[in-house]
Amino acid sequence: MKELQRMFKTISLVVAGVLLFFAHAFAYDTPPCWETLAPRDITGFDFEIVSVVQGPDRSGLYTYTYTVYRIDNGPTARYRELSHFSFWFPCGLPAQMAVVNGIYGITMTCTDAGLCPKIEMGDTNGMTEPFMNRPCNKFWGFKIDECVDTGERMFLLPNYNSVSYPVDIYDPYCTIVFKSVGAPEWGKWLVKGGDGKSGLCDAGVIKVPTCFHPVDAGNMTWGQIKVLYR
Prior knowledge:
Elements: H1 2-26, E1 47-54, E2 62-70, E3 82-88, H2 93-97, E4 107-110, E5 114-115, E6 118-120, E7 127-128, E8 138-139, E9 141-145, E10 148-149, E11 174-180, E12 184-193, E13 201-209, H3 222-229
Antiparallel strand pairs: 1-2, 2-11, 3-9, 3-12, 4-11, 5-10, 6-9, 7-8, 12-13
């Protein structure tokens, strides 16, 4: 039994070392200019993303839940279409790799007719955020692209009564959920307008996974190790 524990501990340290190598190699390629993104509070294009993190559970996993909604600016506001949401992980590639099942482990559900069918996650080279000028447009995390409507309603269009979700439970909202072995740190979200010309955007802070750190596998069960390193 002790021999097995030593073997598991060795595996843990090797894998952790590889992840930390990636952390040093990739994380600092993400420019700090993402830190300058701030809420714009633009009437008709004012969004909120609330992040809640639970865990770790017995398997060492954290559950990340995001609630996305648009502020209700009343009946006279001009509500504008959007292009995409970007979710930035400051730690970079190791944090992105720490999302269980990768892109297939991220689920999104919406309460209204609006659909976001396309979730994008970058490879080792990351993704680009066209709104940010080079060299600030490279990041790791994920995107929600091309939010499409099944009818004529604009995505996350509120009901024009100047009361926003969650106070107004009839305003539409979406939830995004995934699990990760990475503990939370502060990251950024960005939503880009759909016209492609005005530079319309909104932004804010959320909790996202950070780098995965070494774990003493000698104190873990085989089931927990398989969950962490699958």
